[in-house]
Specification:
single chain, 4 helices
Length: 108
């Protein structure tokens, strides 16, 4: 019997039941939920970093984006508000499209 002890997507219990299996679960408190979302973000990021092809990378990026949506809500924001902050930062500091790799800065 596998033990997972991790946050899973909302429809996983129905998927498990449809497969004719039983399970044990509980609903997390708000504090536990935020903590588990943060852990899940690292898990999904590791899966993205380990992706061997573009299709898998996109799947993992989609999972990360789902976590970001949930975390935004945990922090009392919408994804549109997060996007507005991202756009403002990009306007002020730029994005990453130019592939700039900073080596060092010399104090004169």
């Amino acid at each position: 019997m596998p033990v997972y002890n991790k946050l899973v997507r909302d429809k996983i219990p129905q998927i498990i039941e449809a497969a004719g299996k039983t399970f044990t679960m509980r609903t997390l408190s708000d504090e536990e939920y935020r903590h588990e979302l943060r852990k899940k973000a690292f898990e999904e990021l590791e899966e993205y970093v380990s992706a061997k092809d573009d299709v898998t990378a996109i799947e993992e990026l989609a999972d990360l984006l789902e976590i970001i949506h949930a975390l935004a809500e945990c922090h009392g924001a919408t994804i549109e508000q997060v996007e507005a902050v991202r756009a403002e930062k990009a306007e002020k500091r730029g994005g990453f499209q130019e592939k700039i790799f900073l080596i060092e800065v010399h104090d004169e």
